[in-house]
Amino acid sequence: MNMADVVLEITQFSAGFGKAEIVKKIDLQVAKNQMLALIGPSGCGKSTFLRCLNRLHEETEEAWVRGQVKLLGRDIYGEHTDPVEVRSHIGMVFQKPNPFPAMSIFDNVAAGLVIRGIKKRSYVADVVEYSLKQAALWEEVKDKLKSPGTSLSGGQQQRLCIARALAISPPVILMDEPTSALDPISTSKVEELLMQLKKQVTIVIVTHNMQQAARISDRTAFLLLGDLIEEGPTAEFFTRPKEKRTENYITGRFG
Amino acid sequence: MSDLLFFNGLRTLALLQIFVFLTILIFLFYFSRQALAEFGWGFFFNSKWSPNQQQFGALAFVYGTLVTSAIALLISVPISIGSALFLTEIGPAWLRKPVQILIELLAAIPSVVYGLWAIFELAPFVRSSIQGPLAAATSFVPFFQGPPSGIGLFTAGLVLAIMITPTITSLTVEIFKSVPRLFHEGALALGATTWEAIRIAVVSPSASGILSAVVLGLGRAMGETMAVTMIIGNRADISAHLFSPAATMSSVIANEYAEADAGLHLSSLTAVGLTLLLVSLVVNSISRLIVWRYRSFLKGVTK
Amino acid sequence: MIFGRGERTQRSILQLGIRPDRRWKNILMLGLIHLAAAVALVPLFLVFYHVIKMGAPALNWSFFTSLPTPVGEKGGGMANALLGSLILVGLGALLGVPFGVLGGVFLAEYGRGKVAATMRFCVDLLSSLPSIIVGLYVYTILVVPMKSFSAYAGGLALAILMFPFVTKTTEEVLRLIPNHIREAGLALGIPRWRVVLSIVLKGAIPSVSTGVILGVARIAGETAPLLFTAFGNRNWPTQLGGATPSLPVQIYSYAISPFEEWHQQAWAGAFLLLLIVLLFNMVARYLVFRTQMGKAR
Questions:
Q1: Which domains does chain B have, with CATH numbers?
Q2: pLDDT digits (tens, 9 = 90+) for B10-25
Q3: Would the pTM of this model clear 0.95, i.e. be above it?
Q4: What residue ranges define each of the domains in chain C, with the CATH number in brackets?
Q5: Which chains have 3 or more CB–CB distances shorter than 8 Å to chain C?
Q6: Which of B60, B88, B184, C202 could form a Cys-Cys staple with B201, CB 3.0–4.6 A?
């Protein structure tokens, strides 16, 4: 991987809660404008690892991290780095769609901008429109921007959350099983969207659905009990995995 | 067979409780009719209250109740919401339960103890440390003037604030707890500071819930009797001076009922009681209505 | 970066980091929240401090055993008020507890019809009634016909104050018991009333007792409803049909009197009352704690 193209550089990174070590010494690099899928059996630490990348992990009691994570060259766990600032450069989409209640569709997408004090109405409106178009939601909501975010269907709400994350133009967006709470039709719509989006934004997606990873990602990484077993281009990963454990997981020998 | 007996027995008890409620309304109406017949609607708009001259009007007491409750809410609501946020969002985990228990303890202190404390400790404090400076600083408005006794609307409002804080706080805590955590994380992930995330994801969605808690606190403040009676000075007077003595609907009943002679005086006092009852019922019903609507809103949100 | 238009503005905003005023506002609001919690607790400590400081010294053996002395004479106590409170709270609980618990049972077990819904509504409103209104009510239905203040009237007023609270807590607690326990009992052929009383209620005794104890703690401290039902007495209560003194009412009349010795007695009485109410609360909390421990097993 060309070093100039590396967006996230993770070095000897471990994390856990209290006495438990959930993520064990991971070395990983994420390339620009590509999608990296993290797969592995439940409880293997992939969600925990993801939440470390935007420093959400430390909001839980007794959480700890060790090691280095560099975003565009800057260590996000550096001495005087503010987690709030880190999170404004990394977006996140959650498993269950969570548009802010008591806010309209417009206000939801604009939330990230408003927090930063960007108030100029025309600018904000432009950003909202652009983000909704990027999230393939504009046509469906353009006439009801003032209606509450919660009035949309599940799949639409998730696309709304994607638009909300896109609005602040982060270089990386993290996605924690974004389609597992959606019905099959919405899932395929979102997957289509992500295939387009990954050319413009770097995406790291956690999924328990191997087929999904095979379908949409450029590179795949396999985590087992907190260890990074293997990582590589998706096509190779699924057809000729290097590690025996990877092969066992892919072929369903264990869940 | 015995089941039917059991069921009917319980049902009779239930009907009895409904019966008690209805008879309270009926009896109060019945015993007020003399005063209402005598004074008509003017009873509620007249502030003159003189047993000697057989002239009775409830306005001064309504005013006293409203003003003391307003002062209580003004002081208590910010403190209650802040305490609720402390207990649910930002307090250190080990401190939350102890603080919650302590706040609940505030509610356990009997009203008469608050009244006693207010007379001998709070009133002198208000007189010396609050009233003086405040009156001097705001001499251009009438609100903070009044005789330097520490007795009056303001001190009563202050005691009420202390007494209703646990009510509003515990209800608000419940409301905050019922908002799904997911929104809070979503706000943080967007790059919000701690306060911004709380504001967007916890406080804003809870707005109507908080309102219902405030209204409930209002209901409690209006019905509170002993502490207010002991510290308000008991003068049927309407004054813009918040530090002057006054009276509330419940305080005048507490003061005069036992010695009022049957007839117009007693009937007028009962009419004041009826007013208090009706206002209290309305306020509590409004609170329940708000809660009901808020719960439906919350259901829609947590699909 | 994504944006074509305004891209340069975007980049510069993101690289600036967090605006300092956001940082300050955050610190300020968090500070205010901490302050609010602290301010809420200050009166608690003040009240306790003053009540203990003024009341404890005056609390001696004669307080518990002697009657009030005439003005100017030293000594004396509130023994009659203590006995009166015992009588009044006892009467109130005697009436209020069965009504409350059985009412809660009705709502929990047969809670779906119109009667239940109306009852729930009435109980809710009753529990938010100003306590002085209850005193007014009992005055009109009992004191006036009897032509005298009485312990009956005081007890009734306290019972009316108590039973909505006990009904609500009992219903809540019984509702928590899963339905399959009831169904198991019914499946064994046990009649419904027996299932409810011997199985459901019996299993919930600790939690229901907690509600009862808290209800008793509440009425033990009530003053307003007793002012013109039981009224008061400077002597021993001699008959249930006569005026009966009580601790809260005695504290009240001493507090508003102009006599310094009586004020001291009021503080002592307040100290005692506070202790009693606290004791009840702690017992209730301990019961809750123990039930939860039991469940955790």
A1: 2-301 (1.10.3720.10)
A2: 888 888 888 888 999 9
A3: no
A4: 83-247 (1.10.3720.10)
A5: A, B
A6: B184
